[in-house]
Write a structure and sequence with these properties.
The complex is a heterodimer of chains A (531) and B (489). Chain A has a domain at 301-531. Helices cover 69% and strands 6% of the residues of chain A. Chain A has helices at residues 3-20, 26-50, 88-105, 113-132, 136-145, 147-157, 162-188, 206-210, 234-249, 258-265, 268-278, 280-293, 295-300, 302-322, 326-347, 350-381, 392-395, 397-411, 417-435, 441-466, 484-502, 505-520, 526-529, and strands spanning 58-69, 75-84, 201-203, 228-229, 232-233, 389-390, 471-472. In chain A, strands 1-2-3 form a 3-stranded mixed beta sheet. Chain A has a two-stranded antiparallel sheet with strand order 4-5. Chain A has a two-stranded antiparallel ribbon with strand order 6-7. In chain A, helix 16 (350-381) packs across helix 22 (505-520). With 489 residues, chain B is mainly alpha-helical. Chain B has 22 helices and 2 strands. Classes of the chains: A mainly alpha (531), B mainly alpha (489). The A-B interface holds A 65-73, 76, 112, 137, 140-141, 144-145, 147-148, 151-152, 155-156, 162-163, 166-167, 170-171, 174-175, 178, 181-182, 185-186, 188-190, 219-220, 227, 229 and B 322-324, 327, 367, 381, 386-388, 392, 396-397, 399-400, 403-404, 406-407, 410, 415, 418-419, 422-423, 425-426, 429-430, 433, 437, 440-441, 473-476, 479-480, 483.
């Protein structure tokens, strides 16, 4: 059926087609873009009807792509290999939904529409491609393919400091992906395909890479390799590089500094995509590549992973507390919430991993809502400073209602999606010490502080901006409540945040089989856990 | 050395491509003297046809059995034919983009380009130090004059600097030849006598002499520490010439460097750490080139340093001292030719007659006309080594060979080179993106003149862009072809 390929390539082809449409039909670009997103939604529904949540990778498409003769080293083989499983399906579904909303949110873009929608469509395809790719090279290509559109989207359509923010975003992310590339090069030369052939076939196939039996014995990344580089073996180094590469994207402290800048300067739809989708590649990369390929190293460093997560939770929340700019506050709250993802992954328990994936999806929904909310205000006043507003509840009733939903959902109030994710992560983190001894209990206890701080900065913001007497400083415009387009964007997100809070089974059906299988890959490495 | 007349006549047949270029070279002198009307068009057409015909002849002889010509002075094999094809493409493209008045009217212009292509072809075939010297001088002397083709003070300065550095490098090289000749008793570096005497010699002069020889080639490929001439020459010479000089002599230098390094490494029997020496030069070129390019505001100076860094990447393939590494080096050479030409040719399109550009003069031009800016972007993305361009594939392959070589030998310097080289990509992004940054992100200044965009230039750029993307999707097409080349010195 090629459903996945259609999902990936319809936007890319449409983006290239837009190049050919003369700029004077500027109204057609957004309509075309919207049409693409609607078609993608239909394809997504078809995918759900085909998908069976019990049986691993599905909708597999596998076509040979590159086959290069490397002389005495054998053959390099890369494939166009895409499929979905319980990890990628929720994220792909999230992507389709968020990109649709981002396109609606882009309706008001006036500056150079043609360029904007070309980049948006290409970004669309690249995001979904990265989530589907099961060939490391293919993933890398899609992953890099997101960078240039994102750079230009922030750099051209962004706020006053957009140039600085866009290059910072690009440099950080490229550094991360180069670290990943270093591992890819080392890894594919250490892995061969299982089928017996007279020549060694080096593969980028992630599933082959995950199977320790395919590591070429004697290669630097083999399990039994004894060669050290400084304090660590090559496997440990490779995991560390992947870890750093992906947490730059996540982002986790101390590699998070690009995020507030990028968010503050990016236009609203781009902020939405950045927060809801691009940050997810951090967690996705760890779950798909770093952990399954180097489970032994992951166990070895689980304390570090958990600790980085913990620091991100607390430090992000503290920064959010002190932010004066509404968008910056939301950006730092993202850092804090993505810290939970790291904590869940580090616990290496079924609950923790399920919670991490759940948290990624729920954060995708909620952060999109938060950035849209910030955008609503910014569209009206061109001002995002919290101190310049008070008593907004008087003038903007339904806006305030959505803000309350989004803030409470993000705080992790029961009944909202954010709660389910965080609670499962805490289950995992608290269990970890007794189950596998990877995370000390104090990490889980300290992490609860993050919830407290989260409630603190959100409630304080509500108090400052929405209660009291109505006043808007530095702006003469009279504020109006939400218009129909804004309803159209916020309502589905609010409903989704509630739905996944009340009926977690909808998502768990997909995530749970993945998490169970994921954790089971640790069994051969129990010796690392209890030496 | 005994040379029979029949051998000369037999060899001459194999030298048909070079003979055609020589004929064309002489013809262009004569045309320059007697024809005044439409001289430019005739000269350009002649050169283009020459390169095309020569290209076809070289292709038609592919693949060929290696044959020794003129008593071992030259050797015709697929390795040299491959590089010859690159030189011819380079020459062809240079003539195509030389449309400006100043450089194009003089018949010497075509003549000198012909001479460099001829010298490069001979250089890539040389198996004898005297032949190396002759052909490298043919390339060098012509390059010095071409570098001065801006006909202004700055251009003369660049040309003179190039000449002075070049002569010193050549002098070093000749001194090296004499030392090695004294130690080995032969100037033919593929002779068994060369290997056997040098591997038995314990004198450090072997190392010194060999290194002095390499200095001459490193100068040609602008590797650190022999790169100092490049920024001045690149800045002042006409842009088509810069494109030409950054590709053809560099690749010619690279071809002979590969041969000579394999020879002085005595095919693995040398007691000296040639792998480390080449790695250090590659590392220095990457680091110095990338860091020096960062603060540049003149695009051509910036590209000069970029070219230094690219030499470093090319040298990585050689540093592995493996067949595969050299294959990937050849792959990289092709991609380098394409992407460098794309960038310089677009730059040329943006330049008005005789005007020097700074990066801020690109401000907002991406919105004035999209396609040239897009070509520039793709060229720069390819030079950085990002997908979806073949620049990525080339870097991936060359770093793969480096890792494989490290995994085999565990030489520390290779790992340092591996990590530094990849991290340098991040640094390089900063300056490679500078021009696209101004093109797309900056506003058009109020008093700017819209740039004309020539249709023919755009077609050429479109072809280059398509090839760069195609070779990313299907690198096997080119690689399969390169893999056929068995390289035996």
């Amino acid at each position: 059926m090629y459903l996945l390929s259609l999902l990936i390539f319809i936007p890319i082809v449409a983006g290239l087609a837009v190049i050919l449409i003369p700029s004077r039909y500027s109204g057609s670009f957004r309509v075309l873009s919207l049409a693409v997103c609607l078609i993608q939604s239909i394809i997504l529904i078809l995918i759900f009807t085909e998908y069976n949540s019990e049986s691993g990778f599905q909708l597999i498409e596998k076509i040979p792509w590159i086959s290069l003769d490397l002389g005495t080293w054998g053959v390099l083989k890369a494939e166009y290999f895409i499929a979905l499983d319980g990890l990628s399906l929720p994220l792909v579904a999230l992507s389709v939904g968020i990109l649709l909303i981002a396109t609606i949110s882009s309706w008001t873009i006036d500056k150079n529409r043609k360029g904007y929608f070309i980049l948006l469509l290409i970004l669309n395809g690249a995001i979904i491609g990265s989530f589907c790719a099961l060939d490391f090279l293919l993933f890398y290509v899609f992953f890099e393919f997101m960078l240039l559109p994102m750079y230009f989207l922030i750099g051209i359509w962004g706020g006053p400091k957009r140039e600085y923010a866009s290059i910072k975003f690009f440099l950080y992310t490229l550094l991360g992906s180069i670290l990943i590339l270093i591992v890819i090069v080392g890894l594919y030369l250490s892995v061969k395909t299982p089928d017996a052939s007279d020549r060694v076939v080096h593969t980028f196939n992630v599933l082959h890479m995950q199977d320790a039996a395919n590591l070429i014995s004697g290669s630097a990344l083999a399990l039994d390799s004894t060669s050290l580089l400084g304090p660590y073996s090559f496997r440990l180094w490779a995991f560390l590089l992947l870890f750093i590469g992906f947490i730059i994207k996540l982002p986790a402290v101390p590699f998070h500094t690009w995020l507030p800048d990028a968010h503050v300067e990016a236009p609203t739809p781009v902020s939405v995509i950045l927060a809801a989708l691009l940050l997810k590649f951090g967690g996705y990369g760890l779950l798909r590549f770093a952990y399954p390929i180097f489970p032994d190293s992951a166990i070895y460093f689980s304390w570090l992973v958990g600790f980085v997560g913990l620091v991100s939770i607390i430090y992000g929340a503290l920064n959010a507390l002190s932010s004066k700019d509404l968008k910056r506050l939301i950006a730092y709250s993202s850092v804090s919430h993505m810290g939970f993802v790291l904590l869940g992954i580090a616990s290496a328990t079924v609950e923790g991993v399920t919670g991490a994936v759940y948290q990624m999806v729920s954060h995708g929904i909620i952060s999109a809502m938060l950035f849209l909310i910030a955008g609503v205000l910014y569209d009206r006043t061109n001002d995002r400073l919290i101190e310049n507003y008070s008593g907004l509840a008087v003038k903007m009733k339904s806006y305030t209602a959505f803000v309350l939903i989004a803030f409470f959902a993000s705080m992790g109030l029961p009944g909202f999606a954010g709660f389910m994710g965080e609670v499962m992560i805490f289950f995992g983190a608290f269990q970890s010490q007794s189950m596998n001894g990877l995370l000390p209990t104090w990490m889980a206890i300290t992490a609860t502080l993050g919830l407290l701080l989260g409630a603190g900065y959100y409630l304080w913001t509500i108090q400052r901006m929405f209660y009291g007497t109505y006043a808007v400083r530095n702006s003469l415009t009279d504020l109006t409540d939400l218009n129909r387009r804004e309803y159209l964007m916020l309502l589905p997100l609010a409903l989704a945040a509630l739905l996944f809070g009340i009926l977690p089974q909808l998502l768990l059906n997909f995530i749970n089989p993945f998490a169970t299988e994921f954790v089971s890959t640790w069994f051969p490495f129990e010796k690392f856990i209890n030496p | 050395m005994e040379l029979r007349l029949t051998e000369i006549s037999d060899s001459a047949v194999n030298l048909l491509p070079e003979l055609i270029i020589t004929t064309s070279l002489i013809a262009s002198i004569i045309i320059g003297l007697i024809i005044t009307k439409n001289r430019q068009a005739i000269l350009h057409a002649l050169a283009l046809v020459t390169y095309l015909v020569t290209f076809l002849i070289v292709i038609q002889r592919w693949p060929s059995q290696p044959s020794s010509l003129f008593g071992g002075m030259l050797r015709l094999d697929d390795f040299s034919s491959f590089f010859k094809l690159l030189f011819l493409v380079g020459g062809f493209l240079t003539i195509l983009i030389s449309t400006k008045k100043k450089e194009a009217t003089a018949s010497e212009y075509i003549l000198l380009i012909n001479a460099i292509v001829l010298g490069s072809c001979l250089l890539s075939m040389s198996m004898h130090f005297v032949m190396v010297l002759l052909s490298i001088e043919l390339v060098s002397l012509s390059s010095y004059i071409l570098a001065g083709f801006g006909f202004d003070k700055k251009s003369s300065e660049g040309s003179l600097k190039y000449f002075l550095f070049g002569t010193v490098a050549t002098a070093c090289m000749i001194y090296g030849f004499s030392l090695i000749y004294g130690l080995s008793g032969t100037l033919d570096f593929s002779a068994s006598q060369f290997v056997s005497t040098l591997s038995n010699s314990s004198s450090t002069l072997v190392l010194i002499g060999s290194f002095l020889i390499l200095a001459g080639f490193l100068f040609k490929i602008t590797a650190v520490p022999f790169h100092l001439w490049a920024p001045d020459v690149y800045e002042s010479a006409p842009t088509p010439i810069v494109a030409f000089l950054s590709i053809v002599p560099k690749l010619a230098g690279l071809a002979i460097l590969v041969k000579v390094v394999l020879a002085v490494n005595l095919f693995g029997q040398s007691g000296y750490p040639w792998q480390t020496i080449i790695s250090v030069i590659a590392l220095a070129s990457i680091v110095v080139g990338n860091l020096s390019a960062l603060p540049q505001t003149n695009p051509k100076r910036m590209l000069a340093y970029s070219s230094v860094a690219q030499s470093g990447f090319l040298l990585i393939g050689l540093a592995t001292l493996s067949m595969e590494g050299i294959h990937f080096l050849m792959f990289y050479s092709v991609i380098f030719l394409l992407m460098n030409f794309l960038v310089f040719s677009t730059l040329n399109q943006y330049e008005h007659e005789g005007e020097m550009l700074t990066v801020d003069s690109f401000a907002g031009l991406g919105r004035v006309s999209f396609f040239p800016a897009f070509s520039m972007l793709i060229g720069m993305v390819a030079l950085t080594g990002l997908p979806p361009t073949a620049g990525f594939t080339a870097k991936l392959l060359i770093f793969s060979s480096l890792w494989a070589s490290y995994a085999e030998t565990s030489t520390g310097i290779l790992l340092i080179l591996f990590v530094t080289g990849l991290i340098a990509t991040v640094v390089s992004l900063f300056f490679y993106l500078k021009i696209p940054y101004f093109l797309f992100l900056k506003e058009v200044p109020a008093n700017s003149v819209p740039t004309k965009s020539s249709g023919s230039g755009n077609v050429l750029h479109l072809i280059l862009v398509i090839v760069l993307i195609y070779l990313f999707i299907q690198p096997g097409v080119l690689m399969g072809w390169i893999n056929q080349i068995t390289f035996v010195l």
